[in-house]
Amino acid sequence: MNEKHALRDRASWKGFMVASFAILLVISIVFSIRFGSVKIPFLEIWSTFSGNLESEFQNIIWNIRIPRTIVAILAGANLAVAGVLLQGIMKNPLADPSIIGVSSGAGLAGMIILILYPHLPHLLTPVAFIGATIVAFIVYALAWEKGIAPPTRIILAGVAVSAFLGSGISALMVFYSDRVQGTIDFMVGGLSARSWPEVEVILPYSILGILLAIIGIRRMNLLMLGDRTARSLGARVEWIRFTMTAVATLLAASAVSVVGLLGFVGLIVPHTARLIVGNDYRVLLPASIFLGAAILPASDTIARIMFAPIELPVGVIMGGIRSAILSIFIEEENGMTILRTASISHFFSDKQVLKQMDLELREGQIYSIIGPNGSGKSTLLHILSRQLKPSQGNVYWKEADLYRLSPKKAAQELALLAQVNDSMDLTVEQLIAYGRTPHKSMFKRIDEQDQILIEEAISLTKLDLLRKRNLSQLSGGERQRAWIALNLAQQPKLLFLDEPTTYLDISHQLEVLEVVAQLKRNQKVTIVMVLHDLNHAAAYSDEVIVVKKGGCIYGQGAPEKIMNQKMFKEVFGVEADIYKDGHDETLRIVMKPLKN
What we know:
By secondary structure, the chain is an alpha/beta fold. The protein folds into two domains: 3-334, ABC transporter involved in vitamin B12 uptake, BtuC; 363-390 and 402-593, Rossmann fold, CATH 3.40.50. The protein is built from 23 helices and 13 strands. The strands form three sheets. Strands 7-8-9-4-10-11 form a six-stranded mixed β-sheet, with helices on both faces. Strands 1, 2, 3, 5 and 6 form a five-stranded antiparallel β-sheet that branches. Strands 12-13 form a two-stranded antiparallel sheet. Strand 1 and strand 2 form a beta hairpin. Helix 1 (3-34) packs antiparallel against helix 3 (58-90), helix 12 crosses helix 13 (281-305) and helix 19 (476-489) runs parallel beside helix 20. The longest helix is centred in the first third of the chain and has 33 residues, at 58-90. Mean pLDDT is 84; it is low at 1-7.
């Protein structure tokens, strides 16, 4: 099977899932129209739409059920698209519209109308929309510094502003407690009494916002490559971030102003769609639209029939679903440890090189092992990757003894890129095909499924044009990418890289590290690498593992927490000036000798 066939196969799966979400939307619409305090037979619904006869349910269908369903569809789609944009902009899979203050801004503005001016209900939607929009721009202004607004600053500004506005909402509820009853539907989020006027309010914003999101698909995909790569391709990263935030604000504010403070949709829907169809916004955006548009009317239907004829606000149902799904995510997060060590020590002859090391590696993270020469970094990597067995202690793979795995099973789970690889008289494609060895019996040849995985490894490492070239004809960076592709063809859960940038020039070092970052983002592979360049470790790692002389762990954690002046002095014997890059908030380190 050639590469086009493999790509077509993956695209077919994603297309199937998007189509499934669309079918789910159709089912949700039908059930939303049929069920409620009054159950309408399918024949009556068909008769109403076909116009064949007068139905006693026509008024309910046309003036209550249909507009309410349309509002639910548009609000669900708007919140889902706002969430999927913000998760890409903030580089945070759990970001949602509330993170930029939209919910709090709309909430406070809406509460002012409902409590102070209850005789002007027609102002609720426009005022809530204006409040949400103003707050979003305030958040962006607070985050702006030296010509940029990094995601971390936007999130912090959003949290601060949301907390302040939340206090304002609480103050209104305290001072006007006798009027709070009329605000419950808005505060919880509901679709009760939503009809054609609300459709007219939200529809133009939905059309405009979703069209702008579709136009921005290519720009969002550029952001997913990372700020550095996006800038190198000519993208104006800050402008993309600003305009897409404005689109998300437009969509979220219009939804909140009509249905109230609904959570869940903007958080869980895009997060779920991303897990199913991946990060490509060409597929992720329509998947999120259909799924968000299906979830809200379905939840509203449940809210109407659960205690019929009493109708619950849809926000109550959404809150229950959100709690259940977040509990699942928390359980998954708690169970993400895939490799841990228990007091491992190691000796070479009489020399102890590792002492009582306890580590924990979690799924989908990049770890860099750093430390001075002779501290035992490579020895630790070889023990973790099952190339060495520790003299004392043990290593556990998903709570099973790592060394009790068969060599074949271990090779299916773990892959190692050695520091030095022998030159072989093979083409790139032939080398990568060897990565399927752990999954084949002695006499079994490469089959169609193997070829799909080989093509995927070639595509991920950007070796398409080099596949027929001999390894000896490649540059250092290209050759290193070919060996990484070999490891990827193994389909490991955990990839170990022993000094992958050694002997490479600067451009090829960054080339390899960008591939590593993309593997983590797109393939969810856990990566452990030994690095000497501390700036690279800070820029590309989720956590660093610092090993000091004598083979002891100095610390493990996020670079900004571990890599401080005290660590550099005690571990490396140098002084360091540490600051954050003004473009992407990564640490930058300038080292100098200790002062006498």
